[in-house]
Amino acid sequence: MDSDTLTRDRLCSGLCLPIAPIAVTEGRFDASRQKLLWRYYATAGAGGAVVDLLGAPPARRRELLESIGAAPAQVEGESFLRIALVDEAESLQLAGELHAAGIQAIAIALDEAATGSLEELLGLFHAVGETLPLIIYPQGSGTRRLSSIEDWRRLLEIPQVMAVCSPAHRPTTVTAIRALAETRRKDICVYTANEINPVVDLVTPFRYTLGTKSIDRRAVGGMLRLWGVFTARAAQLLERCHVVAQRGAIPDELLQVSVEVSELSLALADENYAGIREVLARQQFLLDNRDAEGKLPSPAVIKRAAIAIENHPHLTDFAFVAARLAKWAEE
């Protein structure tokens, strides 16, 4: 079995895929702290990690790719996937570099402001797909180039597409998953990228009648900034969602957990990772809570993080981390 098939099979098994923040100390990249995060994710039950290269300058990109190359290749006999999240405009230029660095799939963040045509977008995906397997990662309210089910279907029919992410923007999600059902492809999996309400995504059946057949599609895993922290709890919650999805009845208690996860996400998971950095600093993964430009989080961010942690201790993994941090640092 070739490596791309193994990657596809692994993705479609349904994974916890945290989008990792950049580990910095006093505003400078800290390779040892980034390595700690990779060890944490692997031990906590993640099936891989996503290195966030959106807007990363070349020097920072090289540092991050070198760092993720040191992440575990396997965990308990299963591949630990290395995925890169990149801007659509840079995806073709970076594909060769990412492949050489050991990246196994490229998540292309669609530019909602792009003015090009659908044909240009399809051509880009075909070109990048010659080098790496593809994950479609919509942003914001979507892109006008994919305004119909037919547009989405054409994108999803590209052979190298392995997964499509469902964003918080529901019109994009509904259109994309309907298009996926119409392709009849069973080798493309759905991942939630809904930072606000991932739990509901993971237990909701998207059911369609096509001809005489009923087709169900579900999100099998998540690719989330929120899961870059408290990852052990996120992996456990994903497994629980898998069980509930198989049974078909969603308990009220899980719906309550969904509300709590949404509250946690609103406190932590902004695009700048400020709340997540605050938590990772408390857990001693990071030596300080500054961002890549050396800026401290605002008092409001720190307060929101503290309140969320206090209100939802069952969604945190402080004890899990404290028991293992010293060992990870020695590896």
Automatic annotation (TrEMBL):
Domain of life: Bacteria
Stored SUPFAM superfamilies: Aldolase
Protein name, as recorded: Uncharacterized protein
Source taxonomy: Bacteria, Pseudomonadati, Planctomycetota, Planctomycetia, Pirellulales
